[in-house]
Specification:
Strand content: 5-15%
Structural class: alpha+beta
Strand order of the largest sheet: 1-2-4-3
Number of helices: 11
Radius of gyration: 24 Å
Length: 251
């Protein structure tokens, strides 16, 4: 299975597993089926609408169908951060080169060129290029600087903290507050990131795990420098912040 190496600005190294042509084609077929069903549903509504607004119903049908054909992939890849229904079903995701999240320009460019990939004249050439290209990237991916990767399948624990660990953390948080330490408040984005980090920590290499928790803990300590004197490990500070701090709105 092909892999795509990534080095972060913090010099963390990991590999993405690249999606092969077969899984990408299967995901495309699912999306095509969803698109056909949506357009068919619009057609049925147009037939009913003719009785109410006359031929304007077909004009509206044509406009909405065009918007679906052009915007289906753009909408889902932006809204679901690189996934469409088909990609989500097969565990695929579009990312930017370097493993970065997609931007609007990435989404728009790769999908505008999708019509080149799927045109009767050039579709075969694009498909052959995807098969032969080292990272199985179609012309839209090459132009936009994107690639399609397989998401790591993790089995999240039934509970993030077991009762014993949660009891110890609550007791420790109370002791810290009695000593005058104030644990940071988390906004919804920070809480989501830290929860995902804790959930995945067992699947991370030790060096990567330590580095990620250190980065997260240092950001929390920056809110209250006195926390540096609390003699807490990086992981302990992250866990305490999750169970002790009420969430704020997005920052």
């Amino acid at each position: 299975m092909l892999e795509y190496p990534v080095v972060t600005p913090e010099n963390l190294r990991f590999n993405y597993r690249l999606a092969g042509p077969a899984s990408r084609f299967a995901a495309w077929l699912v999306d095509l089926l969803v698109l056909v069903l949506l357009i068919s549903a619009l057609g049925l509504l147009a037939v009913v609408g003719v009785r109410i607004i006359g031929n304007y119903a077909f004009a509206i049908y044509g406009l909405l169908s065009f918007l679906l054909l052009v915007g289906y992939w753009m909408f889902f890849e932006h809204w679901w951060r690189g996934q469409t229904p088909g990609k989500r079903l097969f565990g695929l995701r579009v990312v930017a080169e370097g493993g970065l999240p997609l931007t609007v320009s990435h989404v728009v460019l790769r999908n505008l060129l999708r019509w080149l990939d799927q045109s009767p004249a050039l579709g075969g050439v694009a498909a052959l290029g995807c098969l032969l290209q080292a990272q199985h990237r179609r012309p839209g991916d090459l132009a936009a600087g994107t690639l399609v990767v397989r998401e790591l399948k993790l089995s999240p624990p039934a509970e993030l903290f077991d009762a014993e660990l949660q009891g110890r953390l609550v007791a420790l948080a109370g002791a810290l507050q009695e000593e005058g330490f104030e644990l940071p408040r988390l906004d919804s984005d920070e809480r989501g990131f830290l929860l995902e980090l804790v959930r995945r920590k067992g699947n991370l290499e030790l060096g990567v795990r330590r580095c990620l928790f250190a980065l997260a803990a240092n950001r929390l300590r920056a809110r209250d420098p006195r926390l540096s004197n609390a003699k807490l490990s990086d992981e302990a500070l992250v866990l305490l912040s999750l169970i002790s701090a009420p969430s704020e709105g997005p920052g």
